[in-house]
Write a structure and sequence with these properties.
With 171 residues, this protein is α+β, with helices and mostly antiparallel strands. It is built from 8 helices and 4 strands, in the order ααβαααβββααα.
Length: 171
């Protein structure tokens, strides 16, 4: 485990006086999932594919009994199906840090609210000249490294849904 994974798990479990090592392991693996670009840790994948547990570690590690692990997580006071606990366990056996669970659900609701009667997402209408004027205002003079950002802005303004993701500074 990395220092971040270890100390996050240690801090959270100490704060909640959690003694079960499987819950501590789960906290660390959740941080690892986030570090690898995932919004959650899908606990159910370990039920059907024990090999995927081995891929998480540099050295061979024996996977805990799935049912014991599952039960330990569900019995922890730090875990519930609501974002008022630090870890949320949803009905599909995915674990989230509460803020990511909340953010994902607010994003889903925002997307649903933009759908029209036919189920399509409706972008706010923006004319091409308005887009070009906005780009000139935001990126004038155009810096050579801003080309990718200009293309993203053009795409966002002309499509009903665009997801921009990546590390800090991406969006």
């Amino acid at each position: 485990l990395s220092s971040l994974e270890y100390y996050f798990a240690a801090t959270l479990t100490q704060t909640f006086k959690e003694k079960n090592r499987l819950v501590s392991l789960t906290c660390a693996l959740l941080v690892r999932a986030l570090s690898n670009g995932h919004v959650c840790l899908d606990l159910s994948r370990f039920q059907s594919d024990a090999h995927c547990f081995d891929t998480l570690f540099d050295n061979p590690v024996e996977m805990p009994d799935y049912q014991e692990w599952h039960d330990a997580v569900l019995s922890s006071e730090m875990v519930s199906d609501r974002p008022d606990t630090p870890i949320v366990f949803d009905t599909s056996q995915r674990l989230y840090l509460a803020r990511y669970f909340d953010f994902q659900n607010r994003l889903i609701q925002a997307l649903i609210s933009r759908k029209d009667a036919d189920g399509r997402l409706n972008p706010d209408p923006v004319s091409v000249p308005d887009i070009q004027a906005m780009i000139l205002k935001l990126f004038h003079p155009v810096h050579p490294q801003a080309g990718e950002q200009v293309r993203v802005v053009e795409h966002v303004m002309t499509h009903s849904l665009t997801i921009v993701s990546g590390g800090p500074g991406t969006g």
